[in-house]
Amino acid sequence: MAVVVLLAGVGPDRFSVAVSPLAELAASLHVLTGHLHHPEHASWAADVSRTAPPAFRAGLSRFAPLWTALRWRAFYPGLDPTTTGPDSTAGAGPGVTVSAGPGVTAGPGLRVRRPGLGSCAPVAGLRRLSLRRFAELTAFTCASGYHGFDFGRVLHDPAQADALRQAASRLPEPHLDLAEELLRDPAALRDDLLDFLDLCGRVYFDDLWAETEPVLARAAHRLRQRLADEGPAAALVGLSPSTARLVTASSGPARVVFDKVHHAVISPSRTPVLLMPTRYGAPHLLVKNEPGLPPVVHFPVAAPDVGVTLARSRLLALTDPRRVRLCRLIARQSMTTADLADRLSMTRPQVSRHLRVLRDLALVRVERHGRYVLYGLDLAAVERIGREVATALQY
């Protein structure tokens, strides 16, 4: 499974780079809901949860499906303004207002506000979302999927409502509870959600955004420079060096392939792509590619340097019994190939092959003492394997 970005005939002008407080709000709520998966922010999440009022903790649980597995699309720019209805104000659509720092522009079609807008202004933009569109996007999130579902009339079509209930019932709570709330009283749910997002600003997000926006602005600026200087291929691969690759096969167009658990094909020549950095969204790289909406790539400011392939290779390297015995020896002290061959009853070429595997995976340290080459196990690298696997699986 992979997300493929087709690059034939595509220049930097087909990509916009921006930062968005709403998108970062969603990322931070994701961390607060599942902070055990984000140890780098665990202490921050614990502090916020401990000092937050009961209403905040209740909302964090009640609305969790909107920022856990499938991020609610209304958190991201690019919603079609034609989807607004009689109960909303026509405009550029919620989430389209973004923040830009020095040297960073939002790109074509996006309004720009300067830093310091806090969380209330972007949340206010969500109030332009029509009730029909709100219900459709929320239903998709409660079902944890956009493809294979039609929720355009979920409030009026019993078949779509039944499909939503069935899909949500197969997911952890509170997906079904939120779906039932949506079907019962969508206007009340929308008002409650927007009140909760406003509460987030007062509880923690206004302060968090003030310190996070400059970090994201610098990342956006660097990416825009790389797009201009090196082109889309290098810029996209740089978003995830460990899990993205450039394919330039003789048959078919040039493309960048992201190793993801879902399949999607994005063609910037048809629809411009929005690239958005995140601090609290790490280590996840999210690709939002909902039908009829512009694609969004929400990438970590600091991409993990270990992907699924490398993490898996390191695990497999330590499943060979002879290699495990070798590692146990060099974990205690550095040894030469000759010493290891004697201790393991193996030939020197056999030992060299095992050492080469471990060295290529950066699990072994090499030290030179005169004419001797000593090999030692890099215990710090071995200790990181578990964390690397967890990070790679989330990316």
Question: Which tags fit this structure?
Answer:
four-stranded mixed beta sheet, 12 strands, 395 residues, Arc Repressor Mutant, subunit A, alpha/beta, 2 domains, elongated
**Annotation, overall tally of beta strands:** 12
The radius of gyration is 24 Å
Q: Topology as H/E string?
A: EEHHHEEHHHHHHEEEEEEHHHHEEH
Q: Strand share of the residues?
A: 5-15%
User: Number of helical segments?
Assistant: 14
Number of domains: 2
How would you explain this protein's 3D organization?
This protein is of the alpha/beta class and 395 residues long. The protein contains 14 helices and 12 strands.
Can you describe this structure in just a few lines?
This protein is 47% helix and 13% strand. It is of the alpha/beta class and 395 residues long. A four-stranded mixed beta sheet has the order 5-6-1-7, covered by helices on one side. Strands 2-8-10-9 form a four-stranded mixed beta sheet, sandwiched between helices.
Write the layout of secondary structure elements.
Blueprint: E1 2-6, E2 15-17, H1 21-33, H2 42-51, H3 54-62, E3 98-99, E4 112-113, H4 120-126, H5 131-142, H6 158-169, H7 175-184, H8 186-230, H9 232-239, E5 244-247, E6 255-259, E7 264-266, E8 273-278, E9 286-288, E10 296-300, H10 308-317, H11 321-332, H12 337-344, H13 348-360, E11 364-369, E12 372-377, H14 379-394
Parallel strand pairs: 1-7, 2-8, 3-4, 8-10
Antiparallel strand pairs: 1-6, 5-6, 9-10, 11-12
Helix pairs in contact: 1-8, 3-8, 4-8, 5-7, 6-7, 7-8, 8-9, 10-14, 12-13
